[in-house]
């Protein structure tokens, strides 16, 4: 594999390649160049090579962070006063080394340990960074902090484990045990803030509670103190929002005042004479109350405590997970059982549709893939604790680029940890193929096989999620509540009230509410067989993508609840057929043959290994749900306040559902979504493209 230094050069080359076209250059990331200096006490401290300024104070960066940003946004007091389920949102300009984030996280953890009433409160930390520090450098920087401040060391470890590849766009990190969400928006801060969606048609509209204005000194870098940044600060703030900065420069004072903040100069950290704190004044009737009365009044989650979800495929399960982790009680329903529909395959391949890197920041498949692989790995830790099979088997995957919309030159623009091209010997050794021309390939190190059964078990073990078998036939809403009606297992009529209902019924969603687009239905059959020991030695060793995909997998305990597999045995999975306008789910021998044919046409050396007699093969057929523009549907139904949908995941539900569920839960509860406003508009169930029925 190419070394990281050459990738940095390649990122710079990408920037150069796109720099003639301003519309594309914005999404290429130039990583930070770190120089080192000695601070006042002889510690090594990082300095920005681009801007020639320090990331944090040479006196004591951590103490300065706590003083300037935490104390002068009154965080300890405001976080302590959060109501149950309430979410507090912080926005930072300049993630840098992550020191402010770590200091905030540590305070939050300590407060939650001290105050049991904070058990369900949440912290959302949104940060921006134009020149992210490469993982090797930030690891070195934070290793020094772990020594100097051992109270941060456990958090540093978790942060580094989740540190995203240096790709433009929003990277959501979820730290479930701490009720902490961190959104790292890589790219220019003004662009990123512009992308945060404020949809005023929703019941709860998000806003930022506290700003950390931590750009380099205005004299070194004016971009974080520019008019377009303050315009966004104004757009995203409400009365009661505070801001803090070490800078007392005239332009900062003027800009904060112009966007509605009352500013105050206070003593600066250490030897610094002064710094600024600021607040958007409260309405006079609330101004005298020094508790969080205002925040309580704006508790965006306060009127949502129970949601009913219809459909327990990957869309319904992940929506339940996102809501339950925000303190919402969920009744998850399905007319038959969890994973009864398209989601119940023995394994799903987690692999992205790739795009040239200059589109990546707005590319749902890439954002979804990166978030999913991070989430599933987190769930693997939970699976280990619960002695369950792993949710994601991190096999990696090799794409032979037979049906791909990206070539090796464009793959080279990506950081290796997301996508790379292997040398021929590496590709041969990883895949086990010997005769195939593998000179052109795409290797996805974070790809793997998702075990739907394990995912379902973990999600259903959440104490706030309860599964009920109900075949729903009616949904209604009033100003106060939403109601579903249906038949339970014993065919009794049941009715459930909730604050919100989410329809995740895939291709049948429109039957439950006619406002939902009646999508294209594409039948697919997945096939598998149990190879002999001799066959096994010649079969691919990792998942391969061509015009279809194949993957070896070993069945775990419980997998046979959903499918005809033998626990402990290795099987070869082949996918999949595509039959339009067919909702039959019978198993068809001709579709086993189609999948076999796809494989041996792409990889002729396997013709001798894959049996031609498919009579002993097993299969599962499901229906893919697809919109005409290929985007899922995620959002509130038109003219409704309480009825939502998340559906039309097409052929990539396991890559798309986790990030879509996060976006949906954020919209429902008044937090900032990890997708841009433009992307949310593209996913809207009410978008123009869905106004014309399929012919
Ligand atoms: C053969 C095949 C292979 C695939 N391979 C992959 C892969 O490798 N990787 C990947 O990411 N994706 C893959 N996909 C796509 C993926 O399976 C889908 O995108 C995903 O399953 C969609 O999930 P869903 O929850 O939206 O729908 P479903 O899983 O279909 O769930 C919908 C649920 O709604 C329930 N329901 C419907 N009506 C009602 C009602 N009235 N009341 C109550 N419940 C109701 C149904 O019973 C069903 O359980 C594949 C799909 C197929 C068909
Ligand atoms: C003083 S440092 C931030 C230190 C950081 N908060 C910490 O805890 O280490 C300023 C950061 O702003 C980033 N930056 C500079 N210009 C930017 C821009 N236009 N958009 C986003 N980030 C920017 C720099 O790369 C740098 O990491």
What does this structure look like?
With 695 residues, the protein is of the alpha/beta class. 31% of the residues lie in helices and 24% in strands. Strand 28 (633-636) and strand 29 (643-647) form a beta hairpin. The radius of gyration is 26 Å and the shape is globular. S-adenosylmethionine binds at residues 32, 55-56, 92, 94-100, 128-131, 188-189, 214-216, 221, 223-224.
Gist?
The protein is an alpha/beta fold and 695 residues long. It is built from 22 helices and 29 strands.
Low-confidence stretches: 1-25, 290-294
Main β-sheet, in a few words?
8 strands, mixed
Structural class: alpha/beta
Radius of gyration: 26 Å
- How many beta-strand elements? 29
Under CATH, the homologous superfamily of the domain at 4-16 and 28-297 reads Vaccinia Virus protein VP39
Ends distance: 48 Å
Strand content: 15-25%
Outline type: globular
Order of strands in the sheet with most strands:
5-6-4-3-7-8-10-9
Describe the protein's topology.
Elements: H1 4-18, H2 22-25, E1 34-38, E2 44-48, H3 61-70, H4 75-80, E3 87-93, H5 99-114, E4 122-129, H6 135-148, H7 153-162, E5 169-175, E6 180-186, H8 189-195, E7 208-213, H9 227-236, E8 237-245, H10 250-258, E9 262-267, E10 274-279, H11 284-287, H12 293-297, E11 306-310, H13 314-324, E12 329-334, E13 348-350, H14 364-385, E14 392-393, E15 397-399, H15 408-411, H16 424-431, E16 442-444, E17 448-450, H17 452-460, E18 465-477, E19 482-488, E20 493-498, E21 500-503, H18 509-512, E22 520-529, H19 533-538, E23 544-545, E24 549-554, E25 570-575, E26 579-580, H20 589-602, E27 618-626, E28 633-636, E29 643-647, H21 653-669, H22 677-683
Parallel strand pairs: 3-4, 3-7, 4-6, 7-8, 11-12, 11-21, 12-18, 15-23, 21-29
Antiparallel strand pairs: 1-2, 5-6, 8-10, 9-10, 13-17, 14-17, 15-16, 18-19, 19-20, 22-25, 22-26, 22-27, 23-24, 24-25, 28-29
Helix pairs in contact: 3-5, 6-7, 8-9, 13-17, 13-21, 14-21
The protein binds flavin-adenine dinucleotide and S-adenosylmethionine (SAM).
S-adenosylmethionine binds at residues 32, 55-56, 92, 94-100, 128-131, 188-189, 214-216, 221, 223-224.
């Amino acid at each position: 594999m190419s070394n990281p230094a050459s990738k940095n050069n390649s990122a710079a080359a990408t920037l150069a390649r796109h720099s003639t076209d301003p519309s594309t250059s914005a999404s290429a990331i130039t990583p930070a160049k770190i120089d080192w200096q000695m601070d006042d006490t002889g510690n090594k401290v990082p300095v920005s090579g681009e801007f020639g300024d320090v990331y944090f104070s040479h006196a004591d960066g951590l103490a300065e962070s706590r003083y300037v940003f935490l104390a002068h946004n009154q965080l300890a007091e405001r976080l302590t006063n959060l109501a149950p389920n309430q979410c507090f949102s912080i926005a930072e300009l300049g993630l840098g080394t992550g020191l402010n984030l770590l200091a905030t996280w540590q305070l939050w953890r300590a407060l939650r340990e001290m105050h049991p009433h904070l058990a369900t409160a949440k912290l959302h930390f949104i940060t921006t960074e134009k020149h992210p520090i490469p993982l090797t450098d930030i690891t070195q920087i934070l290793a020094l902090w772990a020594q100097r401040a051992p109270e941060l060391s456990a958090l540093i470890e978790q942060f580094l484990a989740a540190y995203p590849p240096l790709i433009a766009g929003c990277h959501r990190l979820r730290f479930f045990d701490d009720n902490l969400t961190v959104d790292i928006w890589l790219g220019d801060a003004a662009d990123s803030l512009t992308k945060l969606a404020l949809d005023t048609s929703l019941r709860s509209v998000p806003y930022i509670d506290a700003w950390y204005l931590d750009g380099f000194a205005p004299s070194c870098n004016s971009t974080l103190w520019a008019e377009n940044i303050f315009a966004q600060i104004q757009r995203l703030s409400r009365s009661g929002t505070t801001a803090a900065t070490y800078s007392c420069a005239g332009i900062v004072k003027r800009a904060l005042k112009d966007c509605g903040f009352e500013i105050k100069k206070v003593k600066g950290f250490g030897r610094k004479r002064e710094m600024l704190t600021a607040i958007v004044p409260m309405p006079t009737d609330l101004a005298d109350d020094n508790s969080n009365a205002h925040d309580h009044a704006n508790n965006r989650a306060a009127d949502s405590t129970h949601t009913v979800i219809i459909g327990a495929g990957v869309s319904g399960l992940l929506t339940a997970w996102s809501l339950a982790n925000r303190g919402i009680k969920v009744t998850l329903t399905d007319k038959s059982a969890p994973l009864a529909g398209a989601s119940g395959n023995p394994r799903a391949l987690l692999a992205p549709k790739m795009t040239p890197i200059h589109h990546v920041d707005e590319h749902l498949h890439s954002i979804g893939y990166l978030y999913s692989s991070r989430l599933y790995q987190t769930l693997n830790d939970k699976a280990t604790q619960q002695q369950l099979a792993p949710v994601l088997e991190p096999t990696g995957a090799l794409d032979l680029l037979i049906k791909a919309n990206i070539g090796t030159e464009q793959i080279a623009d990506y950081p290796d940890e997301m996508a790379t091209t292997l040398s021929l010997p590496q590709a041969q050794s990883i895949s086990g193929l010997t005769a195939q021309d593998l000179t052109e390939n795409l290797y996805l190190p974070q790809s793997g096989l998702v075990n739907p059964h394990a995912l379902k078990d973990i999600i259903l073990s959440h104490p706030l999620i309860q599964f009920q078998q109900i075949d729903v036939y009616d949904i209604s809403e009033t100003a106060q509540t939403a109601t579903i009606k249906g038949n339970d297992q014993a065919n009794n009529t049941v009715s459930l009230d909730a604050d919100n209902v989410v329809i995740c019924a895939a291709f049948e969603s429109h039957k439950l509410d006619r406002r939902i687009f009646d999508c294209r239905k594409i039948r697919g059959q997945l096939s598998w067989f149990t190879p002999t020991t001799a066959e096994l030695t010649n079969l691919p060793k990792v998942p391969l993508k061509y015009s279809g995909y194949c993957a070896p997998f070993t069945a775990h305990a419980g997998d046979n609840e959903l499918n005809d597999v033998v626990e402990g045995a290795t099987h070869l999975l082949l996918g999949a057929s595509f039959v339009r306008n067919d909702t039959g789910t019978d198993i068809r021998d001709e579709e086993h043959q189609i999948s076999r044919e796809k494989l041996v046409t792409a990889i002729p050396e396997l013709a001798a290994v894959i049996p031609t007699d498919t009579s002993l093969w097993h299969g599962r057929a499901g229906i893919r749900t697809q919109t005409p523009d290929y985007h899922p549907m995620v959002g509130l139904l038109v003219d409704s306040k309480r009825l939502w949908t998340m559906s039309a995941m097409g052929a990539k539900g396991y890559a798309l559902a986790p990030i879509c569920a996060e976006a949906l839960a954020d919209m429902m509860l008044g937090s900032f979504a990890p997708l841009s406003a433009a992307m949310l508009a593209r996913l809207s169930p009410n978008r123009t493209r869905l106004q014309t029925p399929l012919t």
